Structures are given as C-alpha cells and as structure tokens.
C-alpha cells in the first residue's frame, strides 16, 4: 500500500507541476517555443494556423492534466500516510 502511494505521488507531482506551468504560460506559447527549438512541425503551418489548431489539441488540456496530477498526488499521499505498524 505504501509503495503504491509513493508511486502515485511520484507520478502525480511532476504531471501536476509541469502541466500547471504550461497552463499558466499558455498551451499555444509553450508548444510554439518547443517547436521552434526542435522544428517538429513545418514553420509556416505552425505560425499561420497555430500549433493547437493544426494538431487539434484542446486548449483546456493542460488544466485537465494538472487536475489529474494533483488527484494522483493526493491519492498517493493518502495511501502512503496510512497506519504504520511498528515492531515491538
């Protein structure tokens, strides 16, 4: 139970923090900066259409991912902070 809780917390914290950061910065801006560095999509399409429109990514996705990360972290903390047995 404790191992599952720690694993959920370890998965939820980075997901919540990073997707929260993307939500604050803005999904379009974050993807544009990432595309400018890695050149994943053709420059013209990403600039003219916008990456989220071109790829069909919902604008609320970072907020949903941040909520899922927070829920995973909270569930993991609750599981890992359960009753502990001490040896006598």
What do you see in this structure?
It is a single chain. With 88 residues, this protein is mostly helical.
Give me some keywords for this one:
mainly alpha, 88 residues
Write the topology of this structure.
Blueprint: H1 2-25, H2 27-38, H3 43-48, H4 51-55, H5 61-80
Helix pairs in contact: 1-5
Characterize this entry briefly.
This protein is an all-alpha fold. The protein has helices at 2-25, 27-38, 43-48, 51-55, 61-80. Helix 1 (2-25) packs antiparallel against helix 5 (61-80).
**Tally the helices: what do you get?**
5
In total, how many beta strands?
A: 0
Tally of discrete structural domains = 1
> Percentage of helical residues?
over 70%
Q: Which parts are unreliable, with pLDDT below 50 for 5 consecutive residues or more?
A: none
What is the straight-line distance between the termini? 21 Å
Strand content: under 5%
String of helices and strands: HHHHH
Oligomer type:
single chain
Structural class: mainly alpha
Q: How large, in whole angstroms, is the Cα Rg?
A: 18 Å
> How many strands, which pairing sense, and closed or not: the largest β-sheet?
none
Q: Name the overall outline.
A: elongated
Average pLDDT reading: 87
């Amino acid at each position: 139970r404790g191992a599952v809780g720690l694993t959920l917390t370890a998965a939820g914290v980075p997901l919540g923090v990073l997707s929260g950061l993307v939500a604050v910065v803005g999904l379009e801006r974050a993807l544009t900066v990432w595309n400018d560095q890695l050149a994943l999509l053709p420059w013209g399409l990403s600039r003219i259409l916008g990456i989220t429109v071109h790829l069909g990514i919902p604008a609320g996705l970072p907020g949903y991912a941040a909520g899922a990360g927070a829920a995973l972290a909270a569930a993991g903390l609750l599981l890992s902070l359960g009753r502990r047995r001490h040896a006598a």
